[in-house]
Specification:
Elements: E1 2-9, H1 12-23, E2 31-36, E3 51-58, E4 89-92, H2 98-114, E5 119-125, E6 131-137, H3 141-144, H4 149-163
Parallel strand pairs: 4-5
Antiparallel strand pairs: 1-3, 2-3, 5-6
Helix pairs in contact: 2-4
Amino acid sequence: MERAVEMTARTVEQAISQALEELAVSEDFALIEVLDEGETGGLLGFGRRPARVRVTVDEDRLPATHKPVKKTESVAPARPGEEEDEEWKVTSGERGFASAENAALDYIEAILSGVGIHGRIESYLGEEESLHIEITGSDCGVAIGRHGETLDAIQYLSNIVANRFVDEH
């Protein structure tokens, strides 16, 4: 399935960046057509014409990390006492900040399940009561992302979620 956006802006570069932002893809995965380079205009900018581009993305050719996730139904994680037919098995060590730990584990589990990464999540309290979470599985490399950007984002967001349940940071 293809998605296309036509964008106008003062320059070709601005139009391309706005279109890529709207489609939420990088330039590597887009077909860019310059429809009109525009004109800077004459005296005082009279006669100026904006640049116009068309950016097309073939969603079938995008890697799994760039495809938009459409969630139609929510899946409740397995709770203690329920049968364990989930693809994730969550185990935890010492319980210091139990509610923060559970919130972070649930959040990470939801993110990874949503993008199709399956494995095992383990947590333990480290030095200075810091929570450590380890994720193991066959396709966890996708969670690291390009230059570790995805992993940094997951760490940052799960830290925010966990800190909502702790008085002292």
